[in-house]
Amino acid sequence: MEIIDQSILSKVIKKRKSKSHKGNYGRLLIIGGSANYGGAVIMAAEGALNSGAGLICVATHSINSAALHARDPEIMFLDWHDENGLKQMIPQMDVIVCGMGLGNDKLAKHILELLKKYVTSDQVVVLDASALDLIAQDKNLLLHQAKKIVLTPHQVEWQRLSQIRIQYQSDAANQEALDNLFPEKNAYLILKSSHTKIYDQEGNIFENPIGNPGMAIGGMGDTLAGIVGGFIGQFGAGIETLQAAVYLHSLAGDRIFKDNYIVKPTQLSASLPLLMKKYESQNEEN
Ligand SMILES: NC(=O)C1=CN([C@@H]2O[C@H](COP(=O)(O)OP(=O)(O)OC[C@H]3O[C@@H](n4cnc5c(N)ncnc54)[C@H](OP(=O)(O)O)[C@@H]3O)[C@@H](O)[C@H]2O)[C@@H](O)CC1
Ligand SMILES: Nc1ncnc2c1ncn2[C@@H]1O[C@H](COP(=O)(O)OP(=O)(O)O)[C@@H](O)[C@H]1O
Ligand SMILES: [Mg+2]
Questions:
Q1: Measured from the CB, is residue 159 less than 6 Å from ligand 2?
Q2: Is this complex's ipTM strictly greater than 0.95?
């Protein structure tokens, strides 16, 4: 197992080319936010926006549209009851992040079915929160055809999905469970805790050494899912991209925690552009 260190940031965060446009930095579809959990998808979207995603569309319950646009007019909205809209939108995007506040009703399941049907082998899918819980209840909802699939459970979500109780979530058991879920070997696991670990399917494991208890607050994982999506859209779906996303999330949290009793997820997101500028690579992206 390797410990992630700060050098991962300048390795992954590229200086932007002057000759570029929003399409070069990832088209993201973020799906989540039932009538009661709109905050979850807005926090994910703010993680993606502030970490540099080129273009973001949020598919959510229509009740969340005004709040989303009031906070972030940069972000597009799609009513998640609009099945035709979803069918058209899904294959057009580079990265799909799904699950934050999705809930577990019939519509939530149907959205996972649509994803399974319309995601292509060129796309990357990040699955979080309710999406993982729904798949734990019905493994038929799991999609396999994406180029890469990134799971971002906390330990209880991973327990539900892998059937491994928290105290038995050893590296070997986690890797075996990931391989059982994805025999195609196209998945990563970001297992969140106070020491988040990242697993690939080639036997590599990376542990995040930073972060703090001020980050133990609802929405912190939603924010991470958005950052992971934003980073994949800009820097590709390799293991180093995931390490940098996880590390940056905690580094941002630590900087706020130095002077604050708690770390608000929205405050963390707002601090990302400055932090990314500080740690960007000195060489232009190639
Ligand atoms: N503002 C919004 O709209 C927000 C909406 N959200 C949305 O809510 C939905 C449900 O998600 P969820 O994570 O709150 O519920 P769930 O999966 O039942 O987990 C809770 C249980 O797990 C435990 N537990 C958690 N982490 C643990 C850990 N690392 N290690 C160990 N234990 C841990 C925890 O423990 P306990 O409280 O019992 O001590 C409890 O038992 C989902 O769609 C999500 O996106 C949230 O994102 C928040 C902001
Ligand atoms: N004590 C802690 N130390 C470090 N990081 C923490 C701590 N508590 C929570 N976190 C981080 O906060 C996030 C919580 O994710 P999650 O439980 O999915 O939150 P939510 O679903 O409420 O958004 C994870 O990234 C986790 O690593
Ligand atoms: Mg969560």
A1: no
A2: yes
